[in-house]
């Protein structure tokens, strides 16, 4: 049995190593080659920051990155607001007439292919004669990400004790004020988690943005995709490495903030 357990342990270790290598080895290679001095991405020419300097001079790439950031911030904020309201309606209003239709339409983007969602939104904007640009992409991303926020917030509302909100109303608060003053602080972590999920989905989206964008409003994924069709440029490695660095830094800061808040809570707890 001990030998069998040792074999299983070695098998698990090998499986874990192969899985991590499959997931992260391409990313590591890309990060290393972002510091390559050679113009050819497959030929090593020594260490250099050349492509980072050229990236800072690439106005089209910087404009696309700024457009992606603006769209992600706007769509994530709108999705957080509308998704929270939709979650409240589904969890607090009971089974009203049209509840099934409303919930089905809300959760449809979760299972619907993005090609269909993007094409339907494109047809809508064409029918409305709307000029495609920043706002059309923002509306499309809000439509896509609102359902994710609703799922996260609704699960938190189902587990929430309504006694605090009922106590606030007993003390004279109206329903809206009681919700804002008592319920929102309790579900705020869920709203923040939904906002971050919506932000990441919007920043990463390519399919829906390609249907709803217009001239001068290309996002970063569209810009990268349009350039790699002609061959991978070293600047692409540089911009991807910067994105990975920002995400890693955000994860580290979030972990440190969580540990600090947990430490403060433990120190403030009565002995």
Automatic annotation (TrEMBL):
Q: Which residues form a coiled coil?
A: none
Location, primary (coarse class): membrane
Looking at the UniProt entry, the stretches that span the membrane are: 12-35, 71-93, 105-128, 134-153, 186-203, 236-257
State the UniProt keywords alphabetically. Cell membrane, Membrane, Transmembrane, Transmembrane helix, Transport
Q: Which Gene3D superfamilies did the record assign?
A: MetI-like
This protein's GO cellular component annotations are: plasma membrane
Tell where it localizes.
Cell membrane
This protein's membrane topology, according to the annotation, is: Multi-pass membrane protein
Domain (ABC transmembrane type-1) spans: 65-257
Which is a GO BP term held by this UniProt record? transmembrane transport
* Entry's family note: Belongs to the binding-protein-dependent transport system permease family. CysTW subfamily.
- The name this protein carries in UniProt is Binding-protein-dependent transport systems inner membrane component
Q: Which organism is it from?
A: Rhodopseudomonas palustris (strain HaA2)
